[in-house]
What we know:
With 487 residues, the chain is mainly beta. The strands form four sheets. Strands 1, 2, 16, 17, 18, 19, 20, 21, 22 and 24 form a ten-stranded antiparallel beta sheet that branches. Strands 3, 4, 5, 6, 7, 8, 11, 12, 13 and 14 form a ten-stranded antiparallel beta sheet that branches. The chain has helices spanning 178-183, 209-219, 227-233, 294-301, 323-327, 350-355, 370-375, 403-416, 420-423, and strands at residues 3-4, 33-48, 59-65, 72-79, 111-123, 129-135, 164-169, 189-193, 198-199, 205-206, 238-244, 248-263, 271-279, 286-291, 307-311, 315-320, 334-343, 361-366, 385-389, 396-399, 429-444, 447-457, 462-466, 477-486. The two termini are 24 Å apart.
Amino acid sequence: xxxxxxxxxxxxxxxxxxxxGIGKTLTSNVDLxxxxxxxxxxxxxxxxxxxxxxxxxxxxxxxxxxxxxxxYITADYMTQFAVLENVKDSxxxxxxxxxxxxxxxxxxxxxxxxxxxxxxxxxxxxxxxxMSICExxxxxxxxxxxxxxxxxxxxxxxxxxxxxxxxxxxxxxMQQNDSTRKANENNRSIKVLLNKPYKDKNxxxxxxxxTYIMRTYYAHPxxxxxxxxxxxxxxxxxxxxxxxxVGVMSExxxxxxxxxxxxxxxxxxxxxxxxxxFYSTEEVVQTTHITNDEDRISEMAEETEWTYLKTPAGIxxxxxxxxxxxxxxxxxxxxxxxKIVFHKMNDKTELGEKLLKDPTNLLMVQKDSxxxxxxxxxxPDDMTSYLATLNSVYNSYTFSNISTLINMLYxxxxxxxxxxxxxxxxxxxxxxxxxxxxxxxxxAYNSTTSSISAVNNEMAITSSRLVGGPNNVHDPIKIxxxxxxxx
Length: 487
């Protein structure tokens, strides 16, 4: 490698000055240092990651044909429902005011709806899709890590004799008139009526699922104390499985269970009431199950003239950092800057450009810390993990300064002894991973700042090719180093 040396001599001095009232003099020593710069080649390759932690603010539903692989990507999801503790005593009107009654004078719900709220979608909004909605027999256990290969059906969570609906839908509801569809463009949802007769685990029958919820509430209000008691005793959750159709993948921001009923108290005439208090959030267990063509993904990862970033549960880019070369002849120098840029290749087909968006955010994390980063809900600390955002003008992802990581890796190897690299073969390897980020804002002294509050695996359909790979045909990836040489 050719080093570019720019030596600059800086003399930092302070002059003595008598200052009345201070009573002492501050003096600093003369400090000399030299700045040197150099660049080094960086190697990369594609690696398959066929299952990722599916914890996210979103879940996914649908099936789409990947124009790069001609294979189908299918997404199903499971969700539980949260109940806010501050509304547990007012979920329903007092039983005496409910006017909906059966022949035995027991309360009945007018209707029950699962409202699947769509945040965004990829593909054809008019594509006809079919899903199966199944009730769980038991809650998916909280406190565990569920990856995208977790299948509630295969794991025995589905109640075989429970609620089940087969439902055909499209992202754009063609049953609505034009004005209603236009009004709902930014508030799309899939509404499924749960109004068939329902039997609970004790074989008690109700006219619909909402009636089951209401009667359980009046009989056991303690079951509605919070999400845990509700999930354990009332509603373990539902599984939404794509069973037919292709052409669209929907990103679900929340799923709501809404019960409609009628009531009348002494101050009002007959009213129609709903209960929008049961909904999915990050605080309850949600999982997305991804089915992909593993053989085709493996074939793509073996291509050597570039590397891939492909989600969901697809391909990452592994980078080997030339730590030894960077520190050679600079063992006692300080690395003040280490910048690395990954350039994106622009050669998608027209269909690929439409369906396969580029990842917006890339996480750089040590390869051996890949799973623990997400399982421990970490955020980039700019020491061992870093975040880069796609620059759409230059089609690149820039990690401005990973010097702390370079120094840390070198020190770990130096302290680890002669067998360190054998025992830790990934010691100088990092992985680039497409991620979703959430931010939090805070205000202090009339100033508002925002910071990253959560980082999750990107579960939407994205794909990019990066310059690199074992047989890279473009300019090599470079890492630019600035040294501070002590004199």
